[in-house]
Design goal:
Length: 167
């Protein structure tokens, strides 16, 4: 691991512990050259999921890109980073367990909208406006009105029926 301060590669691990979310290990390190302390995270290398874009192109799944989309929607909203990270982990877990190695970007977008609907309605509308590519104000207003009609699903409540695409 390269020291972020001096670039040296010699360091020692001072402390290791499981992260709050339980999916990574947090390590405190100290550079043996400049004695600068820094933190690294180690996590399981996930299965190779390939995302099929709207135009048919395929690209490797990027966890960072997923988090960026959610955090952009939640920008300047009272949503904790931990909540966003948890949403990302839940989406990835669902993709790995319930879908083939190739997943349409539309499927991922729908899952993000479901999570944002549970987390923050303003973030949901922000994401939906980009994801659904609203062309005019009317479509935007219609989405907001439909949001008022949608029941907010409690995250602790399990689904009674499996979605049709997962059978």
């Amino acid at each position: 691991m390269r020291c972020p301060k001096c670039g040296a590669v010699e360091d020692k691990v001072i402390d290791s512990r499981l992260s709050k979310d339980g999916v990574s290990i947090r390590r405190r390190r100290e550079c043996l050259v400049c004695e600068h302390r820094f933190t690294t995270y180690e996590q399981v290398d996930r299965a190779d999921i390939r995302v099929i874009k709207r135009d048919g192109r395929g690209e490797p799944f990027d966890r960072h890109k997923l988090f960026l989309g959610i955090s952009k929607a939640c920008e300047k909203r009272p949503v904790a980073i931990e909540k966003m990270e948890k949403a990302v982990e839940e989406i990835i877990h669902d993709l790995e367990t319930n879908h083939p190695r190739e997943v349409k970007s539309l499927t991922i977008g729908t899952k993000v909208m479901e999570k944002l609907h549970q987390i923050d309605e303003v973030a949901y509308v922000r994401y939906a406006s980009v994801y659904r590519q609203f062309q005019d104000v009317g479509a935007f207003i219609e989405e907001i009105q439909s949001l008022e009609r949608k029941p907010r699903r409690d995250v602790r409540q399990s689904e009674l029926f499996e979605p049709a695409g997962n059978r």
